[in-house]
Structures are given as structure tokens and as C-alpha cells.
Design a protein that fits this description.
Blueprint (H helix, E strand, L loop, with lengths): L2 E3 L4 E4 L4 H19 L5 H23 L4 E6 L5 E5 L2 E7 L3 E4 L2 E8 L4 E7 L5 H14 L2 E2 L2
Parallel strand pairs: 6-9
Antiparallel strand pairs: 1-2, 2-3, 3-4, 4-5, 5-7, 6-7, 7-8
Helix pairs in contact: 1-2
């Protein structure tokens, strides 16, 4: 996890957040337990558990799989980009992006108009990199919060 910053641009390496993955597991475990003790028919509980498991796998791959976001940055012209699966993609940072100490929730829109939310927690990004990213988002617009 490194940060590269020059007068014109910023590149922040993004690692895998163990805190985020633990939260995902806890959330899905809670959903599975709620299904397990519900009064639904057995086959409905079974289908629900399959859906919960599929959701956990999908989210795990999204945040820890080979196509996860590995870097985000801003180029010399002020344009934002992210790297996923070894490919760079131009994105726009939306005003809903939230910047708070220890966490950045990036709200992005790609060239096709698809929206994406990308949580960056302190355990996935070097402290200096997160500080610089928060500062750039505040000065470049798009970031709200404390």
C-alpha cells in the first residue's frame, strides 16, 4: 500500500480491508441466523440461505477477488481513475462521496454511466495515502463530511 503524489497527480494503492470483510461476514451470518430461526417453510429458509451464501460470495469477490479495485488516483488534468483487474478506468467522483477520519466512501460513475460505491477503510490504505486522498477529494470537490 503506497501513495505516489506529484504536483499534478495522485495514485493510491488499495489493499484488502480485513475490517470490511469481517463486517460482511457478520452481516451475512446475522441474515442466515435470522432465516434459521424464522417461521418460514423449510424450503423457503433453504432458498434464503442459498441467496445469503451467494450474496456473501459475490461481495467477497467484489472486495477481495481478482477484479477488486487495486488503485485509485487523480491525473494532472484533475480526472479521476481507478484500476481494477489490471486495467485503468476513467471515473467521475460524485458529490455523494463521503470523507471522514479513517474512511472514505467513494461514489463513482464510469464512462457508461454506471454508479459504484467503493469503501476505503484505514486498514486497506496507508495512513498517509488516505490522508492525501481525503485532502484531494475535499479540495477537488466531490467529498463531503468531516
Amino acid at each position: 500500500m503506497a501513495v505516489t503524489s506529484h504536483a499534478a497527480g495522485l495514485r493510491v494503492e488499495v489493499g484488502i480491508s480485513r475490517v470490511l470483510l469481517a463486517g460482511l461476514c457478520a452481516l451475512h451470518l446475522g441474515a442466515a441466523l435470522a432465516l434459521g430461526v424464522s417461521a418460514l417453510a423449510t424450503w423457503l429458509r433453504g432458498m434464503g440461505l442459498v441467496l445469503v451464501a451467494a450474496s456473501l460470495v459475490r461481495e467477497w469477490l467484489r472486495y477481495a477477488g481478482p477484479r477488486r479495485i487495486t488503485a485509485i488516483g487523480c491525473d494532472a488534468g484533475g480526472g479521476w481513475w481507478l484500476e481494477m483487474g489490471g486495467r485503468r478506468q476513467e471515473v467521475a467522483v460524485l458529490p455523494e462521496t463521503t470523507v471522514i477520519p479513517g474512511c472514505v466512501l467513494l461514489c463513482l460513475r464510469d464512462a457508461r454511466g454506471r454508479h459504484r460505491r467503493c469503501p476505503l477503510l484505514a486498514d486497506a490504505v496507508a495512513a498517509d495515502a488516505l490522508r492525501r486522498l481525503r485532502g484531494r477529494l475535499r479540495t477537488a470537490g466531490g467529498g463531503t463530511g468531516g
